[in-house]
Amino acid sequence: MNIGEIIKRERLQQGMSQKELAKAAGVTTRAIIYWENGERNMSVENADKILRALHMSVIIGQLI
After folding, report:
1. Contacts (Cβ under 8 Å, ≥6 apart) of 28
2. Left if phi > 0, otherwise alpha if psi is -120 to 50, otherwise beta: which for 38?
3. What is the C-alpha separation between 59 and 19, in angstroms, rounded?
4. CA dihedral angle for residue 9, residue 16, residue 56, residue 26, rounded to 10 degrees
5. CB neighbours of 30 closer than 8 A, spacing ≥ 6?
């Protein structure tokens, strides 16, 4: 599963439209469409905006 699929799944689980997510994250609706469909890659900055709008975070390299 890629990040676009994860974003789409979480957005739908939260009952958000692409337009609502775009507005909450400060990006365009077209960008959300591209990312969810895997047509374009997103920058780290935009990934951060999207994850914050979805109240999500990423933990990289966590040791248990």
Report:
1. 22
2. left
3. 27
4. 120
5. none
Q: Which residue has the tokens 């994250």?
A: 25
- Interval 15-39: pLDDT, tens: 999 999 999 999 999 999 999 999 9
Task: Report residue 52 as tokens.
Answer: 């914050």
Tell me 43's DSSP state.
P
* Euclidean distance between CA atoms 12 and 47, whole angstroms: 17
Tell me: the pLDDT tens digits for 36-58? 999 999 999 999 999 999 999 87
Higher pLDDT, 63 or 1: 1
62 burial (CB, 10 Å; 0-12 / 13-18 / 19+) is exposed
